[in-house]
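Journal club prep — side note

Before the paper discussion, L.F. wants everyone to see what a predicted structure for a comparable chain looks like in token form. Sequence:
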Amino acid sequence: MAASRSRELKWRSPAVTYREEVNPVPSSPKSTTREYITSVHRLPVLITYGKRRRLKITLDDDGRVCAFAPKYMSLKDIDKFVESNHEWIIKHQAKLADRIKLPYIDAVEQKRKARIIKARASAFLAVYDGKKPARISVRYMTSRWGSCSANGNISLNVYLLDVETELFDYVLIHELSHLYQMNHSPAFWAQVSRYCPDYKKCRAALRKYQIPKKL
């Protein structure tokens, strides 16, 4: 389960993304990176050139615009694309600014929290009448609150101890539901809603949290 889609905000549209290389710039066998300031709104952009066919823009955790471009694309075309999405950028930068940034915890604290999370998950499973996982583990993940493997193993993010109990339960129910459906189909969400009718509310609440990256 992804922690939040706004950690990598993508803008893609066949009408405006670039499918072919245009206006050559110096190439490199490897990805190259440079900083750039757009022409109109003076937006700082970190541009990474590489072997790709489309131009993509994202926002990093701090709201900085990151552009991933074909290595032969000109600054003029990149500038035009970024400027044309100025309103989208400002909108999502505002959303990122409102997020709750969880504090980084060291390895010792992570182990302590992992023990508590496992105990809480075990207590939940003791009264849960659905399929049980083969194993539950707890680890640090930067972009997911949880995951479920095809073998029925569930991993939970150590930062789940820092969110509300109802959100913790939702993530666990979400991953347990993958034991029935290894996808996000209507059938999957129907399974989730059996145990968490307010799952949409919980999903929205989780998006307000930002998991820290390693120091």
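L.F.'s comment for the group: The helical segments are 75-84, 86-97, 107-127, 165-177, 186-195, 199-206. Keep this in mind when we get to the figures.
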